[in-house]
Amino acid sequence: MSNKEGSIAYDTQEAIWYNTYFTMPRPEQKDDIPEYGKRSFTPNDLFHWYLIEHHPVGYEALRALVEPLAGTSFGRIALDALHTEFDAQPLAPPPPTIMPEDLYLAFFKHIDDTNIDNDLKGMDALNAETALWSHLTHNVAVHSIYPDERLEPSEMAFHQLRHDDVWYDPEHTHLAFIHGHHQWQFFRNGERVGGLSLQSVHWQDHKNSSLLHLFHVLAEGSPHGRQFFDERMQAIIALPRELQTFKRYTNLLFVSERFDFHAALKASKPPGTHIRR
Sorting pLDDT into bands at 50, 70 and 90, what band is 3? Predict the structure, then answer.
C-alpha cells in the first residue's frame, strides 16, 4: 500500500476520539461521542493507526482477557497458547510477548480434509444452535458447528467475522484494504464468561500479488448483534459510508463432544433477582 499522505501524528484527544468512534457504537450512544459526525477519517488515517497499534498485547490487557476464563477450558487454551509462544522466545530480556492474532487463533480447533465432514447435523446441530441463540440478542444461522474435544459439556465458543472493502474513492475503483471485525464469545454453564475482539486490515502487495500483508489489533469494542451480519449497517463509523462496502460474514460454533443442551442454555435468574421499577 502506498503512503500518499506521509506520517500522521495523533494527539491525545484524537486518540480518544478514534478509539471511541472507530468501533461501531450503538446509535443511542452517539450523544456521548465528542464531535459526533463532524470528523471523518480517510483510509490512510485508518491504515496509519493500524501501523501504530499493531504491537504485542500489553500485560494489563492480557490479564483482563485471560483472568475471566479461569477454571474453564478456554482459560486452559489461552494459557497453553501463552506457554507455546513464550517457550519459543529467548530467555534473555526483553520479557516474552504475544501478538493479538496468536491468542485469537489458539481457540480454533484444527480442521482439515480429515475432519471437515465431522460437523454436527440434524438434531445435534439444532440443539447447539438453539442453546447459542438463548445467549444472543439476534438469532443468526450458524454456518458450521463442530465438536471440540477440548471443551466441557456446557461450554460453547462462538466465532464471528465480518469483512468490508475499504476504498480510496467513492466510485470503488481503487481498493485501499480489506477490513475485518473478529470476535470470540465464550459460554459455560449457561453464562457468558468472556470474549476476544480484534480488528484487522489486509491487502495484497502492490509489487507481488501473491504476498499478503495482515495487521491485527485488539478492538476497543466490536459490532453488536446484527451489526456483524447486516450488510445495510455501516461497519466503520469513522469512515464515510461511500468508502466502504460489505464483503462477507461468516461464523463458526464449537461445542463439546459431550455437549449438554440444558447446561448450555442461558441460565435463568433466580426468583427475587429482578430489579423492580
Answer: very low
Q: How many CA atoms lie within 13 A of 140 on its CB side?
A: 23
CA-only gyration radius of the chain, Å: 20
Interior angle at CA 157, CA 180 and CA 271, nearest 5: 120
How distant, in Å, are the alpha carbons of 20, 67, 148, 168, 207 from that of 213?
A: 26, 31, 30, 18, 12
Cell numbers describing residue 95: 520479557
The DSSP symbol for 67 reads G
Which residue, chain included where needed, has cell 459526533?
Answer: 36
Tens digit of each residue's pLDDT (9 = 90 or more) over 149-193: 999 999 999 999 999 999 999 999 999 999 999 999 999 999 999
Output the CA–CA distances (angstroms, integers) from residue 156 to 66, 104, 194, 247, in the order listed: 16, 16, 11, 27
Q: Are 164 and 174 in contact (CB under 8 A)?
A: no
Percentage of the chain beyond pLDDT 90 is 57
**Averaged pLDDT, 93-101:** 87
